[in-house]
Amino acid sequence: MSAVVEAVCVSGEHAFSKEPVQTATVLEGLGLQGDAHAGVTVQHLFRMAKDPTTPNLRQVHLMHAELHDELRGAGHPVQAGSLGENLTTRGIALLELPTGARLRVGSSVVLEVTGLRNPCWQIDEFSPGLLKLVLGKEPDGTVVRRTGVMAVVLEGGEVRPGDAIEVELPDGPRAPLQPV
Prior knowledge:
This protein is α+β, with helices and mostly antiparallel strands.
């Protein structure tokens, strides 16, 4: 199966969930036009309160639809945008990508993966018990975060459901993803 965009979601407000749209303009160095998390500097409210001058490494949030399938199977009402992602993907192991991997989306958009999304307590407000399914620990104590990856926009353009995604891995040593 080829990797594709299953859904595109945007919210102009700092809300937990985002709404699916038919197309979105992705702006170089910013994020999705009209999305509350687009910007050169950090737009996440908690992080803005700490230091509003921090570079925005979370311009675009990507989450794999396979996780949605699993969570729905466990009885949670998850659909595209429910967990705040901008792009819902299918056919790509997002969590296995290294830092710096580039994603070519559609005909012109290029995203660079910056790290993992760190799931927060609001997930349980959306659906009680959901947090324990997306945030866990390995037997050795390593924290496992499953709520997608964050990226910055290197090249903008239009993005829509059905767009193909191509992965370009960075040259040299590959750093595993860390929360951003």
